[in-house]
């Protein structure tokens, strides 16, 4: 979608960059000329991904182990990234934790765990990189937060994630205004269903995938393809989106709007029924 040098010479930090969508975004950024820092808790996963991405793209990848719940470790991440690449241009807050559970089965600790990873992890990274950029008077920086569509609708059975992602959306919009003066832009992407091992095993385990066919919920009747999301992410962190600030872009094939529209369920009406329905409706007069 973008020209091949769209991210040339820029350095992008991707949290949760060793797996799933974070890995796919990292690969796309490398193909557009960026250096990438991938970070998560599991160094062996990061090292394997870094080696594979360097081999497939010819780009430079730094793997840094960091638990984003711990601010000290995040500060060390900033130091390591800057020491290695000289500067950081973009932060992608992609790391997350989530699982399905009826809320009454959750302990307070379970709730706190998800809030810590998703909300506090994004806050910690944004604060540490943001303060670094402000301190160094570096401008033209972008932060991209990966949220979900239930950040604004809410959702049962994933309550901690819904609360945390709503917080990340508020973080995005708040800092888009407050920190614009420092030359930063803050945007978000709200993906619909994109197959990844991390999400699928925790949100649709075992036979649930067949029972709750996610494709049926999407007007386009298919799941997202990773390149569709990575194209959008590349655009939003690049200078080509320089006037987009504080936006959340939904990429879900129309899924959440289908759920929201009161009459969207009429999709289930057999086409042959519409003649009879129209006659009934037209037959209503003057009442
Ligand atoms: C109820 C559970 C639970 C479950 C854990 N807990 N799993 N409670 N049901 N299925 C409770 C534990 O009992 C414990 O509480 C507390 O949560 C912390 O659990 P730990 O296992 O100690 O936590 P930790 O090792 O930090 O692991 C965090 C994790 C894990 C979130 C539980 O799954 C993880 O590391 N996930 C990272 C990757 C991930 O989740 N990817 C999916 C992102 S998908 P007690 O009280 O017992 O101590 C996504 C998609 C969104 O976000 C939208 C899709 C459309
Ligand atoms: P994933 O592969 O499980 O990605 C989550 C990543 O977060 C992992 O790499 C994990 O690595 C990292 N992580 C978890 N806790 C961490 C911590 N404390 N510190 C640092 N890193 C941590 O799942 P995914 O599907 O690609 O999800 C990526 C993002 O997309 C998430 O924000 C998710 O909410 C969002 N999303 C996904 C979908 C979808 O359909 N897939 C839909 C909507 C939104 P470690 O375990 O090694 O730490």
Offer a quick outline of the entry.
By secondary structure, the chain is α/β, with parallel strands linked by helices.
Descriptive labels:
287 residues; alpha/beta; Rossmann fold; 7-stranded parallel β-sheet; 7 strands; 46% helix; 13% strand; globular; binds hexanoyl-coenzyme A; binds NADP nicotinamide-adenine-dinucleotide phosphate
What does the model show?
The chain is globular. It is an alpha/beta fold. Helix 1 (20-31) links the parallel strand 1 and strand 2 (35-40). The longest helix is centred in the middle third of the chain and has 29 residues, at 108-136. The termini are far apart. It has helices at residues 20-31, 43-57, 71-85, 108-136, 150-153, 159-178, 197-203, 208-211, 226-237, 255-260, 274-282; strands at 11-15, 35-40, 61-65, 90-93, 141-146, 184-191, 248-251.
What fold name stands as the CATH topology?
Rossmann fold
Low-confidence stretches: none
Number of helices: 11
Order of helices and strands: EHEHEHEHEHHEHHHEHH
Amount of beta strand = 5-15%
What is the CATH architecture annotation? 3-Layer(aba) Sandwich
CATH class: Alpha Beta
Head-to-tail CA distance between termini: 55 Å
């Amino acid at each position: 979608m973008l020209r091949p040098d769209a991210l040339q010479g820029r350095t992008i930090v991707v949290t949760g960059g060793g797996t799933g969508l974070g890995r796919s975004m990292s690969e796309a950024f490398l193909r557009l000329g960026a250096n990438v820092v991938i970070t998560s808790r599991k160094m062996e996963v990061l090292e394997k991904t870094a080696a594979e991405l360097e081999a497939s793209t010819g780009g430079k990848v730094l793997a840094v182990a960091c638990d984003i719940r711990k601010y000290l470790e995040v500060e060390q991440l900033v130091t390591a990234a800057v020491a290695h690449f000289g500067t950081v241009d973009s932060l992608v807050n992609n790391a997350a934790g989530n699982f399905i559970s009826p809320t009454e089965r959750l302990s307070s600790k379970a709730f706190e765990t998800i809030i810590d990873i998703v909300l506090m992890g994004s806050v910690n990274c944004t604060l540490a990189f943001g303060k670094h950029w402000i301190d160094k008077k570096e401008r033209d920086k972008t932060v991209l937060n990966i949220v979900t569509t239930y950040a604004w609708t809410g959702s049962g059975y994933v309550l901690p994630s819904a609360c945390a992602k709503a917080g990340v959306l508020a973080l995005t919009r708040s800092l888009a205004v407050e920190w614009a003066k420092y030359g930063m832009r803050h945007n978000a992407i709200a993906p619909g269903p994109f197959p990844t091992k991390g999400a699928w095993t925790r949100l649709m385990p075992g036979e649930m995938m067949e029972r709750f066919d996610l494709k049926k919920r999407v007007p386009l009747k298919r799941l997202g393809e990773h390149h569709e999301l990575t194209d959008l992410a590349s655009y939003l962190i690049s200078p080509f989106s320089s006037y987009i600030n504080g936006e959340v872009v939904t990429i879900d094939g129309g899924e959440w709007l289908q759920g929201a529209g009161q009459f969207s369920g009429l999709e289930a009406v057999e086409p042959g029924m519409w003649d009879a329905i129209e006659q009934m409706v037209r037959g209503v007069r003057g009442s």
